[in-house]
Design goal:
Shape: globular
Largest sheet: 6 strands, mixed
Low-confidence stretches: none
Distance between the termini: 28 Å
Number of strands: 11
Mean pLDDT: 84
Number of domains: 1
CATH superfamily: P-loop containing nucleotide triphosphate hydrolases
Structural class: alpha/beta
Strand order of the largest sheet: 7-8-9-5-10-11
């Protein structure tokens, strides 16, 4: 049994994503080692750590863009690059992943959404950072078929309305059976939305549930900052 962030006791589903003894190095620099992780549908994991800790590297491994030097990554019991054929993934790596010279109307038409900001005739490179970020997220989260959401710094540049939209969209997809991994260097972005928090510190991955961090109430940004400080002391 596990306790979700809503406080309900539920039977945990079989893991969709599994990392076993995962390690990665660049030359003589070890990014992380011996990472173990299991995540099931209906769960949201918040990934936190200092700059350079390896968060983006770890996220890329989850979707098959990088391979670990040691250990094993499994998505739906297969290597991620193989599993993608039957386990759709929504991966977002920042607004820069959008093609800069394509006009926004191309994506708007593909997504079937309205041109609420009057951006349709503008090349993506001429949009504000926040608008590019929102458009990129719309592209990544279009439809509802993804079983795994992997979003790297998705709140970067978003205004309050877009931030609220993102939280609602992720929660709706997870409630429909998806699983989400969200990375942010800002504690308040992940506060209150995640079931578990993974702190990547000194090459180690230390997990804490929302219930452990803030029993009987919603996790706040200050709670996460204090938990991060405690984790660094033992890492």
């Amino acid at each position: 049994m596990v306790q979700t962030k809503t406080g309900r006791d539920e039977v945990r589903a079989a893991p969709l994503l599994q990392l076993s003894g995962v390690g990665k190095s660049y030359g003589r620099c070890t990014v992380f080692h011996d990472l173990d992780l299991e995540l099931a549908p209906g769960e949201i994991l918040g990934l936190l750590g200092p700059n350079g800790a390896g968060k983006t590297t770890l996220l890329r491994m989850m979707v098959g863009l990088l391979r670990p030097d040691v250990g094993d990554v499994r998505l739906a019991r297969q290597a991620p690059i193989v599993a993608l054929a039957r386990c759709p993934v929504a991966y977002f790596a920042g607004e820069a992943s959008l093609p800069p010279d394509v006009r926004s109307r191309t994506w708007i038409r593909l997504l079937g959404c309205e041109d609420v900001a009057g951006i349709a005739d503008k090349p993506i490179r001429k949009l504000s950072k926040g608008t590019r970020q929102r458009l990129g997220l719309e592209v990544a989260l279009a439809g509802s078929g993804a079983r795994l959401l992997v979003l790297d710094e998705p709140w970067e540049g978003l205004d309050p309305d877009a931030s609220r939209w993102l939280r609602t969209r992720v929660q709706d997809l997870v409630n429909a059976g998806a699983m989400a991994v969200l990375s942010s260097h800002r504690m308040h972005d992940l506060a209150g939305i995640c079931d578990q928090y993974a702190f990547l510190v000194e090459g180690r991955l230390i997990l804490r549930s929302a219930a452990d961090i803030a029993p009987q109430r919603q996790v706040t940004g200050d709670d996460l900052l204090q938990a991060f400080d405690r984790v660094r002391e033992i890492a």
